[in-house]
Amino acid sequence: MAKARVLVTRRWPEEVERQLAERFEVTFREGDAPLGQAGLSAAMGEYDVLCPTVSDRIDADVIAAGDRVKLIANYGVGFDHIDIAAAKAKRIAVTNTPGVLTDATADLAMTLLLMAARRAGQGERELRAGRWRGWRPTHLIGSSLKDKVLGLVGFGRIGIATARRAHHGFGMKIAYYGRREALPDVTRELDAQFYPELNDLLAESDFVSLHVPGGAETQGLIGAEALATMKPGSYLINTARGGVIDHAALAETLRSGHLAGAGLDVYPAEPQVPEELLDLENVVLLPHLGSATRETRIAMGERALANVVAWAEGRPLPDRVA
Ligand code: DGY
Fold first, then answer.
1. Alpha carbon 164 to chain centroid distance?
2. pLDDT tens digit sequence for 250-294
């Protein structure tokens, strides 16, 4: 039987590319440049399986462009860049890679939180520019974490993993907003307080960390009103999706000093970074590094591969989202 034709849209770690190539007829993108809408559309008629990433927009037009693709095996957990309704309507299965990037992303949320609280980016910029005038008691004073309230917006796998690090590692108090209360053993372990209303959580938290999925439901969730509700002098951390925040409103809130700082890893139209943030000292800006550890990127590839193999063998897909 002919091997299934698979397109991998961006380079994966070598060891997983090799495993994929042993089983399927695979096209890898030599230059690692994004395919763009035209390339993705053409691929719909040429391949059986598409393996995209968060940097590919698989919208309804792309999905309508060809009839060959039967599986979209996303390399990543978030799938708001894929039009799930359009895929379902064409009976195209969609899978993701949950679980394997929880720890790496929670580590990065803590990296941002610490960098924002301790003004690490600002300090490094000052030093590299030759502007450091030596140690002094009032230099670049930040905030401690112990006994501060960390409010998590979204309390799924990554939210809980972040809370564990913050509570057990840094002595922070945990509060969370989500669709429902967490399981009692998690609540007990973290002494976590549930807030059924987002605004109440925002008003009570010294640090707010976002862990909700992207997409229409959470678009602009943290806009001007929510930002004004946040505690004066608090911090906002985002490792979820850029669209969750209104960045013009965030820049204004940071400029006014109402928020002490922010740490961002994701943006609405990556790789563009909202202009208005670039010259603000009190925001840490990282280039979507949440899952960027060697171990995690290999595990993500293996998870995507497991879905392609299951599909090829006609077995149930381990991580089916559509
Ligand atoms: C994901 O998997 O959705 C991440 O944003 C990419 O690391």
1. 18
2. 999 999 999 999 999 999 999 999 999 999 999 999 999 999 999
User: What's the CATH class of domain 102-285?
Assistant: alpha beta
Q: What is the pLDDT of residue 52?
A: 98
Say what angle helices 102-117 and 120-128 make with each other, to 10 degrees: 70
Asked if residues 211 and 156 have their Cβ atoms less than 8 Å apart, the reply is yes
Tokens of 202: 């925002």
Q: Is the pTM of this model over 0.90?
A: yes
Q: How far apart are CA 5 and CA 185, in angstroms?
A: 45
Ligand 1 near 98 CB (within 6 A): no
Distance 137 CA to ligand 1 centre (A): 40
**Nearest residue (CA) to ligand 1, atom 2:** 76
Q: Report the nearest atom of ligand 1 relative to the CA of 76.
A: 2
Cα–Cα distance between 159 and 101 in angstroms, integer? 12
Portions of the chain given CATH number 3.40.50.720: 5-100+294-312, 102-285
Is 152 in contact with 174 (CB distance < 8 Å)?
yes
DSSP-assigned states of every residue in 61-101: HHHHT-S---EEE-SSS--TTB-HHHHHHTT-EEE---STT
Greatest Cα pair distance, the chain, in angstroms, is: 73
What's the gap in Å between 77 CA and the centre of ligand 1?
5
- The first and second tokens of residue 37, run together, are 């809408």
With tokens 């307080």, the residue in question is 193
Residue 312 has pLDDT above 90, yes or no: yes
Domain 5-100+294-312: assigned CATH number: 3.40.50.720
Reported in sequence order, the residue ranges of 65-224 that DSSP labels E, i.e. its strands, are: 71-73, 93-95, 149-153, 173-177, 193-194, 207-210
